[in-house]
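Listing S7. Sequence submitted for prediction.
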Amino acid sequence: MRERSLLTRPRLTIVSGEPDFELRRIAHTVTDSVMVDGRMELEELLSDLLIEAARCPEVVPKTLDLIGHTRTNASLLALGQWIIDAANPTTTAFFRELADHDVLPRLGVYALRLLGCNSAGSAQARATIRKLGELLGLEVYGTKQLLHDAHYGTAGFRDCWSFLLVAASELRDEAQISETAELAEREHAHVAVEPYARVLDVDGLPAVALGPSAIPRRIATTQAASEILQLVRRHEGAVMPGLHTVPSVELALPAAAMGEYYVAHVVLGGEFLRFYPDGMTASGIVFPVEDADALGQIIATLLPDPYVIH
């Protein structure tokens, strides 16, 4: 039975049912995802799940992930023709009713995630996230960058992209902060504020001479550097919060000038490589790696740098 399968997964993935190629590709990628065409269909699905939850021996803790495009200049998430806007009384009434009847906790839902491009990208969108969190008594998340099908796997939104999410609890003190102060605060906290994905231009990277390093460093040959760069998803760069970016290895990729290199840091077990297109003193941009195991195999063949401080 479909409802029981949905209750036993760690993600309840709901995709907007509008006729859109990318959304249908996401729905096809995520196992047991459900497409709905608006608020009424979502309500019917949740009702069916409640019936099954009452007789299901196991209801797994899960996130409720609503996936759709963001509509209007306010970056509000849409499921079909329904725009999720807390300024709309119909929308707030729907979520208040869910809270009054403990619908989401009874389904094992501990967080709601609005997964659309930059769904926390405007004051109105962030106000919606905060309001839904208050109504539901759950953590509610939006996103701070563009999303597409590569951010999803068979289990749903991939965990390695969780740094793109912003929580209602992070936004509750924002109401009295001006947009300028907000940007300054985010920069100080090393949180990404760029709404668009960065593209890796290798020739535009700063070429530097190597000095002492406290991070284990490997020197790549020209061939190895080419193989490494082939694993990088060059159109999906993003800023990642500093606490998540402690590098395990520094890679020195040979530049055109003798004795100069492009620096890349291996983070999150090889899931990402961090480059420095804005200069070595900047926070850096992380790019996802297509195959972390393949990257590890290449790194294992590289010679260590004798300048590393042990």
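Caption to Listing S7: primary sequence and predicted structure tokens for the chain studied. Residues 39-53 form the longest helix (15 residues). The longest strand covers residues 260-267.
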